[in-house]
Amino acid sequence: MQEILTVREISKTFNLSxxxxxxxxxxKKTALDKLSFSAYKGEIFGLLGPNGAGKTTALRILSxxxxxxxGDAEIExxxxxxxxxxxxxxxxxxxxELKLDDYFTPNYLFNFFxxxxxxxxxxxxxxxxxxxxxxxxxxxxxxxxxxxSTGMKQKVSLAIAIVHDPEIxxxxxxxxxxxxxxxxxxxxxxAELKKQGKTIVLSTxxxxxxxxxCDRVGIIINGKMTVCDTxxxxxxxxxxxxxxxxxxxxxxxxxE
Amino acid sequence: xxxxxxxxIKKELHRFFSDKRMVLxxxxxxxxxxxxxxxxxxxxxxxxxxxxxxxxxxxxNLPDSLPLGxxxxxxFGPEQxxxxxxxxxxxxxxxxEEDLLIVFPxxxxxxxxxxxxxxxEIYYSSxxxxxxxxxxxxxxxxxxxxxxxxxxxDVNKAEGGKVYDLATNEETTGFFLASMxxxxxxxxxxxxxxxxxxxxxxxxxxxxxxxxxxxxxxxRSEIAIGKIAGLAALxxxxxxxxxxxxxxxxxxLMSFGGDSDLINMKIYKVWDFAALIFVLLSTACLxxxxxxxxxxxxxxxxxxTATVMPLMIVVVLIGLSAIFSASAKxxxxxxxxxxxxxxxxxxxIFSFNYSMPNTIVTxxxxxxxxxxxxxxxxxxxxxxxxxxxx
Lengths: 256, 390
Ligand SMILES: Nc1ncnc2c1ncn2[C@@H]1O[C@H](COP(=O)(O)OP(=O)(O)OP(=O)(O)O)[C@@H](O)[C@H]1O
Ligand SMILES: [Mg+2]
Known about the structure:
The complex is a heterodimer of chains A (about 260) and B (about 400).
Chain A: E1 3-15, H1 18-24, E2 28-40, E3 44-48, H2 55-62, E4 70-75, E5 78-79, H3 84-90, E6 91-95, H4 106-116, H5 121-134, H6 150-161, E7 168-172, H7 180-195, E8 199-204, H8 207-213, E9 216-221, E10 224-230, H9 231-235, H10 240-252
Parallel strand pairs in A: 3-8, 3-9, 6-7, 7-8
Antiparallel strand pairs in A: 1-2, 1-4, 4-5, 9-10
Chain B: H1 4-17, H2 20-49, E1 57-60, H3 67-76, E2 79-80, H4 86-94, E3 100-103, H5 108-113, E4 121-123, H6 129-149, H7 169-207, H8 209-214, H9 220-254, H10 270-297, H11 301-324, H12 340-350, H13 356-382, H14 384-387
Parallel strand pairs in B: 1-2, 1-3
Antiparallel strand pairs in B: 3-4
Helix pairs in contact in B: 1-9, 2-7, 2-9, 7-9, 7-10, 7-11, 7-12, 9-10, 9-13, 10-11, 10-12, 10-13, 11-12
The complex binds adenosine-5'-triphosphate and magnesium ion.
């Protein structure tokens, strides 16, 4: 198996803002503590963890939006610390924090991002047709983002995140806030991407999503990787939910 | 392959023009508002300055043996009022039924010849426009008469259509515009900069669309330069819109609504306007990048607009400096100081008093400062503390 994405002991501590200090009763917050994992070519890797575990922080580091305090991550052998511009060419990144401008149409945005990724115009036209048809965006191609439903916005975001047909996709909570129909379209699409040989790293706190699509899982609690293995080895045929709570009790103690 | 900077400039323009509210408030309104306000003010002034046609004046003890009596008769056509009626007339003025009452002492003529300085009483009501206007006309006329009594010599006595002010019409216009235009143009340009830049930097950060741009392979420097160039073009558009409003309304304002040639923009050549546009463009670049830096620190458009206020005050004050310094500076070093150099050059352009080297230094200096600001902005886009703080 070819290791295509490697995370080596990344740590990240945030200085808290005045507002957060009151809530956390501390000056700093360690979001990631020597987190390591790898993803292999053609698999779907799931980062599972409760709110505030550090999932988003880890994926932001992979997508070079922020830098780790220590440790490094490599994507196809390229360091996110040393060569962030190159890394961004290799990946597609999707999170609900990345918004599309209300005043543009899906068509305009698709063209705009394609040109930033230096996609050949003829390839871009074919890809636009394919993706817009698949997600049912074609009818709304000239409708402004502001006038689209949440589900349609998410589908446009998804199409735009992969305009350049990247080999590695990083999805932060890809089904968050979507209704069951749209969520199914997205999960089906993840499976299809995998079939095409793409590598996907996703984060979620939804057990069923992991069980449905992931090959391997890392359970992350308080910024630390607790277990990281294939889904089968971690669960040993028990429900993932039970396994998760066992680990959580070991790490943090009884739930209140 | 197209350059990323161009792609981003195009996107900024497209974004601006697809937002109708933005186009209206930043591009159309400033010019239209200035035109309407100044034209309206011009018309209102002309109403204040020309005396009312219809008024009623009363006079007590009109000194008809003096030339003054005749002047009063021909100017105001007053009704002669007996002393016993004074209180009654005063009441009527109070109620705006009458406009003015001039009361000469019964002994006025003798007092004058004996040089006893008699007092003339004039009753009026300052709340009535007609009464106020007739009152000032009467006071002026009496003052003039008093001067002529004690006449030792005259200064610039209007005689035979002689012209004493040797400045040409063009110079008067130039002098006036040179003191007003820098402040007006810089302020209007600045408000355009604030409108487009806070929206494009703080707004994109606030709405999460900036992060979408930051995950693409575009270099941070390309985003910074593309944004500054696109926004400067838009801000220049806002500035030009305001200027067009000024161009058409200033003559009306200054001629008090009439069509006198007091202010005539036609005295400037195409070349002057071209120089003006380049100076404004370089200034727009600089102001946009300053506002962009401030906006990048802010978490929301609201916060950005509030934080920009101190800079606004500084810019307006620099603009005001042109009103107090009569003519543009000539030393070339003055023209390397950003913003101040623009004010000086605009001052010079309108007073026919600008030089090529100084104008070029101004433009180059502003562009260099914008470039430095673009570098700062690039570093800010790279800083996760600034772009992704919670
Ligand atoms: N920019 C920041 N400044 C300060 N604290 C931060 C920042 N980003 C994240 N944190 C903190 O770091 C911790 C981890 O956050 P992160 O968003 O990575 O968690 P998550 O696993 O994605 O949780 P969620 O399920 O809520 O999305 C949280 O306590 C969060 O408050
Ligand atoms: Mg998260």
